[in-house]
Amino acid sequence: MATIKDVAKLAQVSVATVSRVLNSNGYVNPTTKERVNKAISDLNYRPNDVARSLFKGRSKMIALFVPDIMNPYFPELARAVEDVTNQHDYTFVLCNTDDDIEKEITYLNALQQKSVDGIIIVSSTINKEHIQHINVPIIALDRILSSDLSSVTVTNREGAKEATEYLKEIGCERIAHICGPENASNTVQRLRGYLDVVKDEDWFLSSYVVSGGYNFDKAVEVTINLLKDHPEVDGIFAANDVMGVGVMKAAQSLGLRVPEDLSIIGFDGIALGKTTSPSLTTMAQPIYDIGARAAEILIEHINDKELLRKREEFTVKLIERESTKVRR
Amino acid sequence: MATIKDVAKLAQVSVATVSRVLNSNGYVNPTTKERVNKAISDLNYRPNDVARSLFKGRSKMIALFVPDIMNPYFPELARAVEDVTNQHDYTFVLCNTDDDIEKEITYLNALQQKSVDGIIIVSSTINKEHIQHINVPIIALDRILSSDLSSVTVTNREGAKEATEYLKEIGCERIAHICGPENASNTVQRLRGYLDVVKDEDWFLSSYVVSGGYNFDKAVEVTINLLKDHPEVDGIFAANDVMGVGVMKAAQSLGLRVPEDLSIIGFDGIALGKTTSPSLTTMAQPIYDIGARAAEILIEHINDKELLRKREEFTVKLIERESTKVRR
DNA sequence: CTATTGTGTGTAACCCGTTACATAGAATAA
DNA sequence: TTATTCTATGTAACGGGTTACACACAATAG
């Protein structure tokens, strides 16, 4: 690979002049500039980003932490972050953390050593202390990690409330909830939204809430148990779509008709919900927009270290599909 | 951030000695070593990887090109590559190419400028010429890009043949095929496997093959048309699971029972196939293993520039689920 | 007892850019 | 006409590591 010295030699100028041409700063005589550009293209020269990074202390890389890219919520998020990242000439690094704090810390260190410019984090385990000594901008996504971090989230509680109310509206009289893992903040929010609607109903039982850990197989299993114990349940709000589809699978395996016998609503709005028969009604998040916005805010922080903390909250939107009865 | 000089000063040695301790090479007196290690931990020093990369000309980064991480086949692949990558202390860079050669070339250049150590590519557009002047090891995944590249693929043709034969065995008498996009090499292979079985059947019609572009919505659409034109079709081999689920959706929307009226088999073995009712019978690829193996071979190439080209082919395996009639 | 090898450490060049600073001629201002 | 500013370019330090080479002393060999 040609270096800036080779270009300088061929164009008969100093490396400083070549650098000026490359970065369009300082004075360069148009004739000289042309000579340098010719040398650059003749040698097919491309500046070494590593050397640049070393001097600048910045690497033009952005990392995204997700628990597991195999969870279908994350690919769209990752895609959004990558797209924005690329538009701004950053390179995108993906880190699967398994919500394992050890792995997260290892990544945090490795990325710092690589002078990564910023990190977007979806995590249930990282807290203020883990990141206080990190001098790279961090954005919390989907969940809030620390009071002094910018974040992009959604109206989990309100959305959950709306989902549950929707089930009531269409005529469900016993509504259960399959919630996520206890340690995730959005599990708590969505559960609260559900309880906001049902806790004062005379039919409400605490056993109408069971945890499916945001996991398909677990959701199938707990739903089967729930429906066996409580055949009166005619509506289920699943805290995410993966579990919503699990609930549908469970219902169908028990011979229940969806939505005639059981209405199901999910949360997230991932593509999976469109593939089932019947397709899944859901409270959809603008997943791509969330990821894109997080990346934009991160880049703002990178460009302006003094930028104040931002908190942005997207609203979720009901998508009526086939897993719920038609509104009367 | 502390530098090696700070450590050297604190430990009262030269930077060379610190470097020797860090890299465990050369002679270092045990006492000195201890002093250096103390200084390192006192300062919480971590070597700057950018400086290291500049000197070494290697960055400890590996990139994966996929058409689109939102296609559910790729997250598992990406996960595998990332896991292996991490085990060997590499950082994982994900690139969504949309099978757009412009984007691919842009990435190739950007990664070279970053001294990336190796690239794993899934692409239908990149060919020999695009990569001949690239001096970084490249592995072709899922599809073969160039005769001189190591690759990891699956037995597409044999798997397709087996899938089609399976439909025959369970009693299907008119078997159609929803194929992938024309430009993908595995589309061609899977189509050949299908034709190997059916081309000499007296019932076979060329209109039994339609393209669904590996896409859910497209597959739903073309299947509806196919089944309207050819109500005699009682078995469909979809070239991937996403389309297989689309076929199921189409069949159910037409009021057909699966598998009683129509048996459906997919290809890939992604998690999606387990979520539907009925669940999707498929020719499963060992997706994780494929990705992991590609990453391992890449690392072998990185460590040994003289390593000969390797061609590894994984076999696919029938997973009988509920979308096909039971074998008589 | 000298020659050789092993041990332990430091100096400085190198990787490849960027940029502060120096220099100098040309253009403009006073 | 002289002072000042603008234009144009070069030299060299710098970023933070790694390592070739030099040097010195200790241990072992002959």
UniProtKB/TrEMBL annotation, chains A, B:
Pfam families: LacI (PF00356), Peripla_BP_3 (PF13377). GO terms for molecular function: DNA-binding transcription factor activity; transcription cis-regulatory region binding. Residues 2-56 form the HTH lacI-type domain. Gene3D superfamilies: 3.40.50.2300, lambda repressor-like DNA-binding domains. The keyword Repressor applies. Keywords: DNA-binding, Repressor, Transcription, Transcription regulation. PROSITE patterns: HTH_LACI_1 (PS00356), HTH_LACI_2 (PS50932). The keyword Transcription regulation applies. PANTHER family: LACI-RELATED TRANSCRIPTIONAL REPRESSOR, RIBOSE OPERON REPRESSOR. This is LacI family transcriptional regulator.
